[in-house]
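Appendix B, record 7
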Amino acid sequence: MTSRQKEASALQQLGGLLWTIVTATASSLLLSTPLLFRRFYDMLKGKTSESLRPTTPLLSRTGGKRDAISLYEGTVCHERRVPCAHKFSYSVRYALLDLDRAPSSFSSASALHHMSASKVRDISGTTGPVYLLTVPSSVGYEQSPLSVYCCFNDDETFLTVCIAEVTNTPWGERVTFLFDPNGDTVAKALHVSPFMDMQGLWRMKVGISDQNVTIKITVEHPEHGNYFTASLCASRVDHWKGSSEAFFWLMPHKIAVGIYWQALLLWWKGVSFLQHPKYVNGNAYREDAIQKDIELSSSKLGNDLNLMGCCALKSTSSKCTRSYTWYEAQWPWT
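C-alpha cells (predicted):
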C-alpha cells in the first residue's frame, strides 16, 4: 500500500468515525427522552421497576440457580509500562445474564450482538447453564469491548470454561475463542488498539461469585515483556431503585468516549500509531494467531502455564483448537 493510499484510508476511517459519533449521539438523545420521562414519573409516584425491586437481592439463590439478570458495579483499570507510563481507571456497570432465562428487553437486542446459550454450549462442549457478562445496550447503542460467556457444570457449582468475545473499536470486528477461566495464555487474535502490535500474548483469568466478578488480562510481549495490564473488579448491586435500562443509561457511551480519549492521550505522549494488519497483509494475522496458539499448546512453556486447560474440550488427535471465530460486529458495534 502506497503512502497516498494509506492517507486516503486513514481519512476514510476518520470520516466514518465522525459520522458514527454524530449519528449515535442523535439517536441516543432521541431514545433517552421516553426513558427520562418514565424515570421522572416513577420518582413522582414513588414507584420502582416491577422486575428489580429494591428489597430483593439481585443474585439470590433459588434452587441453586442465580437470577436471570444480576447487576454489578466496579472499576476497570488499565496500566501501560512501555514505551511510556500510562495508567487510568473508570467506574463501570456490568450485567450477568442467564442466557436461557434472559429478560425480553435483553433478548431482543442480544440476537444481533451476542450468541445464544445453545450456540455457546455447542462451541464449548458443555451442557450446564451459560451466563453472559457484558455491558448491555443503552438507548440504542452498545459498546462492550470484552464480553465473557461463562459455562458452568450442570449443577452450577463449577465454572468449567469461558468464551471471550472481543470487539475492536472503531473497526467493528469481533473474535470469539475458548479459554480456561482459572488462568490461560492465548495468542493475540485481534487488533484491538492502534498503539499495540500483534506480537503479544493475552494472559487471562476470570472469577465469578455471588458477590464479586474479577477479570485480569496481561499482555506478554517478546520484546517488551509484561508491559500492559487490564482488570475489572466489580461487586454485586443488591438493591437498585429503578429499571435495568436506568441502571445502564449511557454506560456504553461512557466507555466509547473513554476509549477515544485515552487514545488521544497516548498519541499526545508520542506512542507510535500502528496500521491495522488487514490493510497490510489482509487476514493473514488470523492464521498467524491460530498457528501461534497451536505452538503454545504443544510447547513445554504451554504445559508449564496450563495452556491446555480449555483446549481439552475441543481437542483432536492432531491438535487442539480454541474455536476462533472472526466476524463483523452488527451495528451498533459492541
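Remarks on this record: The helical segments are 3-45, 104-113, 117-124, 244-247, 251-268, 278-281, 284-298, 300-304. The chain is about 30% helix and 25% strand.
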